[in-house]
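Here is one chain, start to finish.
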Amino acid sequence: MAAYFIAQYIVNDPELYKEYQAGAGPTIQASGGELLVFDTAAEVVEGTPPGPQTVILKFEDTAAARAWYDSSDYRAVLGKRLESTTGFALISQSMNLG
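Its structure:
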């Protein structure tokens, strides 16, 4: 069952965030992940999110998403995102409704 890494945040340090992007992209591809959404101006229809930037990655399953997130390659660049942004990230499983 597919799993999604969803991050929603505001970028406080664009230069450091660019470094994160350059390093994170290859780790996603190497882990079999797929970038589904990269939106810098998401339209809020309910609630108060931390910022306008939304990223959604798709992985084969939760184990694959966690393996990517916990990998040494991703951990090597993760600090740059955490330092350059304010927001949240989560891993969510898809549901089979049928």
